[in-house]
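Revision sheet: structure tokens.
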Amino acid sequence: MKLVSYVRLTRPFYSVPMALTFTLTVYYARGGDMGGLWPGVWLATAAMMLLIAGAYVLNDAADVEFDRLGAPDRPIPSGDVPRTAAAVLGLGLWILGVALGSFVGPAEFPIVFWAVAMGLLLYDGFSKRLGVAKPLAVATLVTSLYPLAVAFAGGAQGSRAWTLLPFAAWMFLSTCASELLRDIRDRKSDAQVLNRKNWVQRRPRTWMTAASWLILLGAAALIAPAFLGCGRIYAAGLPVVLGAAIWAAWANHYEPKIKLVSIEFVLVGVLTTADVIVYGF
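Predicted:
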């Protein structure tokens, strides 16, 4: 058993940036006026990080039969981490995240946080059996970062508050597209375990085209923040983001599409962070 294998299960390259996106969104929702909220924000960010990491581990523990065929190098199917140990780790992280998130922020935040936590737990148990609803479920859970942040902030105010709506729309559409593409990628291993293919996996070309349109629609939503309060750094980097989205939509294979959408997420995160640091509110 290797420590690095346990760390890999928590997907730090996903769980940490996603939690920090919550922090940035709270900052946007507050219009930069944190008014002594930073200690609570960092505790809520830690709760998000624990919750997301735990959900990733639990999902791997639940999907080990699928990963033995589709991703045998992952820690559990490769034998580096026992399935039971992974389940205990994932549940422990989930419980710690829920416990911490229950005692921070205004009264509305723990309610929304618990709803998201339960949604993640249900998703982990049934993700591969949701069929065509799986991409919608993932997109909803990822985009829940926005209502969580607004609940913690006590509403949205300031010059950048209206940017949150198009950013949330972009995240939902792009995540949905990415998950459609991942389902197409995993169609052979999923079918061997479940003895059937879902609607997406039966018509990969049709749904890959649908994913391309979702990527383009999501990218179109990113234009609005340039006119709703974001500064010149965001506007200057926007053509690069739109270029990555167009490239992703144009690509004729799911692997480059998935990678380009991931690059798009990174670029938007960097631009929105740099922009608010330089220009403020």
